[in-house]
Design goal:
Layout: H1 4-17, E1 22-28, E2 51-55, E3 58-63, E4 66-71, E5 76-81, E6 96-103, E7 111-116, E8 124-128, H2 135-138, H3 149-157, H4 163-168, H5 178-188, H6 201-222, H7 230-236, E9 255-260, E10 263-268, H8 269-272
Cofactor: Zn(2+)
Organism: Rhodococcus oxybenzonivorans
InterPro entries: FPG_cat (IPR012319), FPG_N (IPR035937), H2TH_FPG (IPR015886), Ribosomal_uS13-like_H2TH (IPR010979), Znf_DNA_glyclase/AP_lyase (IPR000214), Znf_FPG/IleRS (IPR010663)
């Protein structure tokens, strides 16, 4: 799932490639992705693209007051093409969900595709006059790269959740997902099972600084990358996430995994839990 660094990089990519263009035809290949009907998707056609923004893990394109907002969810992605097919896509065929065509001042006709891999279709698109009309944006907590340390500490004090869950709770803190929370906790040497509101003051300070460093470094690695290469860039920078069974790059211990429901997280027992192996239960208390 794209998280803060990748979505910020996609927003910057659109600022460089789409801002200044005019929206042309909009092809909807999967009606299920549209979560709004007023204004209609056709309201974007003929509008100047005046900006692109990130709200947590939501990506938004400003069509001069009419916004296209998307949440790429677990399997979604944005693909830019300079030479899109002139023929409208056939609904229900392949991973394509939506295609947005552009006319640039230079006379080019590029487009971007919103695609989704896998059988579980969760990619969502809204067309709104104000991004705050999107429920998921309206309930976001402060952004992980904008929150101050006192605000961060105060947020944790309100949460009785495990710190792993607190970091990925978008209503508490916006932008961090499963992958970067693994990286942040590993770098900070904090157990995923630690309770947020009982973290010692020095641990909160370390966690805050680590969160900013990990996310800022990831954003810097991602900016300037072609949209198609961002996923690979994300994977290449991971220390423990999705590296189950491999050696920890810090201590050499085996990276372990806890699975629950449809997700899992990775950690290093030596670096984070004093050598204790966390219980791997599908009905983990992390679900609470």
């Amino acid at each position: 799932m794209p998280e803060l660094p990748e979505v910020e990089a996609l927003a910057e990519f659109l600022r460089k490639h789409a801002v200044g263009a005019v929206v042309g035809r909009v092809d909807v290949a999967a009606l299920s992705v549209l979560k709004t009907f007023d204004p209609p998707i056709t309201a974007l056609q003929g509008r100047d693209v005046t900006g692109a923004a990130r709200f947590g893990k939501h990506l938004a394109l400003d069509g001069d007051g009419v916004w296209l907002v998307t949440h790429l969810s677990r399997g979604g992605w944005l693909r830019w093409t300079d030479n899109p097919s002139a023929a409208p896509p056939k609904p229900g065929k392949g991973p394509l969900a939506l295609r947005l065509h552009f006319f640039t001042p230079e006379g080019a006709t590029p487009a971007f595709d919103l695609t989704e891999a896998g059988t579980k279709k969760r990619l969502a698109v809204w067309v709104v006059h104000d991004p705050q009309e999107v429920e998921g944006i309206a309930r976001l907590g402060p952004d992980a790269l904008e929150v101050t340390e006192p605000e961060f500490a105060a947020l944790l004090e309100t949460s009785s959740a495990r710190i792993k869950n607190a970091l990925v709770d978008q209503s508490l803190l916006a932008g961090v997902g499963n992958a970067y929370s693994d990286e942040i906790l590993h770098t900070a040497k904090i157990s995923p099972f630690a309770t947020a509101k009982t973290l010692p003051e020095d641990s909160v300070h370390i966690l805050y600084d680590t969160m900013r460093t990990v996310l800022t470094d990831a954003v810097e690695r991602s900016l300037g990358q072609d949209a198609a290469r961002l996923k690979g860039e994300k994977r290449s920078g991971m220390r423990v996430h999705a590296r189950t069974g491999l050696p920890c790059p810090v201590c050499g211990d085996t990276v372990r995994e806890v699975s629950f429901a449809e997700k899992s997280f990775q950690y290093c027992a030596t670096c984070q839990t004093g050598g204790k192996v966390l219980a791997d239960r599908r009905m983990s208390r992390l679900l609470k």
